[in-house]
Amino acid sequence: MTSDVLLPIAIPIFIVLVWLFNCLNIMREYERAVVFRLGRVLKKEKGPGLVLILWPIDKIVKVSLRVVTWDVPSQDVITRDNVSLKVNAVVYFRVISATKAIIEVENFRYAVEQAAQTGLRSVLGEVELDDLLAQREKLNVRLQTILDEQTEAWGVKVTQVQVKQVDLPQEMQRAIAAQAEAERERRAKIIAAEGEFQAAAKLAEAAAVLNREPAAITLRYLQTLVEIGTEKNTTIVFPLPIDLLGGLGARLGGEVKK
């Protein structure tokens, strides 16, 4: 066969192959295809697997359904008690409706990022610093709820929001450290006072027992002597009752007067 015969056959075959190549699309498991036919979107999304379109009448836009992790840059926040600080967070979101994500918003990822920054500043600006540091889980849930309500119309689901880091000014860090130190000192004094109170209560109970049984003080005295003797100590202390000393003082004073 001559080239004059093969050329008319090869050209249509080449055109058909090019057309089939543009009509066949392979979508991954995590991808969906939004098909536009003559500018109108088809209601049903296509994929995964082999997707056949009528090129060039149909145009497809691929959308990933995987979870996107976005690190929110540090935002300047002024809390309710007028404390200026920098806060950054991380947002997890995914597309649940590829058609809405393409049609309802021009760039759904950029829209989610801007909504996350705005929501972070507004929510943290309504709470005090102590609540921001102590109730972070509640703030995360509140941020997620607000963002999820905003992005639902775009076919995007915000799965999780976490406040990652809070940068405090140096002055505020020193103030918090001083407050924590004062709190620890207060607790130490309370614990010491409770110990003194319990010791006094036990001493009062012991005095009551000794008052009921006068021989008990003698036994206690002998036990103390045994403890001193086991330590190889040559010093022995004899306790004298205060009443005896008082009586001796009164007698001596009477003799001096005479």
Please summarize what this structure is.
By secondary structure, the chain is an alpha+beta fold.
Identify the CATH class of the largest domain. Alpha Beta
Structural class: alpha+beta
Number of strands: 8
The H/E string reads HEEEEEEEHHHHEHHH
Indicate the CATH topology of the largest domain: Tetrahydropterin Synthase, Chain A
How would the global form be characterised?
A: rod-shaped
- Approximate strand percentage: 15-25%
| Largest sheet, spatial ordering of strands | 3-2-5
Q: How many helices does DSSP assign?
A: 8
**Rg for CA atoms:** 43 Å
Uncertain segments: none
Number of domains: 3
**What is the arithmetic mean of pLDDT?**
81
CATH superfamily of the largest domain: Band 7 domain
Helical content (DSSP H or I, runs of 4+): 40-55%
Biggest sheet overview: 3 strands, antiparallel
Distance between the termini: 162 Å
Task: Identify the CATH architecture of the largest domain.
Answer: 2-Layer Sandwich
Structure commentary:
- The structure is a single chain.
- With 258 residues, this protein is α+β, with helices and mostly antiparallel strands.
- It has 3 domains: 3-64, no CATH class; 68-168, Tetrahydropterin Synthase, Chain A (2-Layer Sandwich), CATH 3.30.479.30; 181-248, no CATH class.
- The protein is built from 8 helices and 8 strands; from the N terminus they run αβββββββααααβααα.
- It has helices at 3-23, 98-103, 108-124, 129-134, 136-151, 170-212, 215-230, 242-257, and strands at residues 24-27, 31-37, 40-41, 49-52, 58-64, 68-78, 84-95, 156-167.
- It has a 3-stranded antiparallel sheet. The chain has a 3-stranded antiparallel sheet with strand order 6-7-8. Strands 1-4 form a two-stranded antiparallel sheet.
- β2 (31-37) and β3 (40-41) form a beta hairpin.
- α3 runs antiparallel to α5 (136-151).
